[in-house]
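To: structure desk
From: M.T.
Subject: fold request, one chain
Message: Could you run this one when you get a chance? Sequence is below, nothing fancy, just the single chain.
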Amino acid sequence: MENLSALIRLDYTLMIVGIGAALLGTVSGALGTYAVLRRQSLLGDAISHAALPGIAIAFLLTGSKAPLILVFGAAVAGWLGTLLIMSIVRLTRIKYDSVLAIVLSTFFGFGLVLHTLIQRTGNANQAGLDTFLFGQAATILESDVLTIGILGGVALIIMLIFWKELKLLVFDEGFAASIGFPIRTLDVLLTSLLVIAIVLGLQAVGAVLMSAMLVAPAVAARQWTNRLRLMVFLAACFGALAGVSGTIISSTASRIPTGPTIVLCATVIVGLSIAFAPNRGLVWGRIRHRRSRSDLKTAADGLLKQSQQRSE
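Reply: Done. Structure tokens follow.
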């Protein structure tokens, strides 16, 4: 009976972690599509690192490790960091990649300083805050899954409501501005949605690896289609698949971290898509290249025979 009870608890824990990872992959994959198409993939890295001081400040102000409080602190810090990046790029001549590196390292360094100060306070309640740095998906609870589901669902609903506006922002920002769309407001809205997706995954994947969860499913989906609607759907499916498969693989062996395993599964999906996607895949491209060379050689041989027959 004790062994049966342990097995049931293990299966229940695995189910909770798997559901949370699948929801996270769905949200980050769908919203990461816009970051990839706008060539802002590294923005996710900056947001995830900028969210770290927000977690520390939220804990210092409240003394609580409640998921909603920490997620709110991370979201505010990530949002402010992103607005700072956008403002510096707009008001100065500093290039986007330089601003991204400066803000990322500054916020991340500030977050590490705050976490060190928290550890030195001796507050017993601070245990577990370091999971937001490297992630610890195995510690996801029902409340965390509920938070990911509600906030992620709200972000996806907002994305669908502003589907047309965000689509124009991604593919033709100049045309969107010419017909009166508030480009800056839409930019802030899209950035806010990305912030939500990233801060939801900090506990599972961590600030260091969260950008991969945002980018990898979208990159894989891009290999299979040229349509935005299908790309968003495929990216969400690939993200969910990486979350579930990473959770299952990490549960089969001891001491294998779940978050990095999820990221590795997402990377495998990217590799398979790059290799075998019908339109952009390297394998199919090689096959089409060989067929084209064969057809060209056949046509050349036919023309050569015709010319020989005419000369005779």
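Reply (cont.): Residues 1-8 have pLDDT under 50 and may be disordered. Let me know if you need anything else for the meeting.
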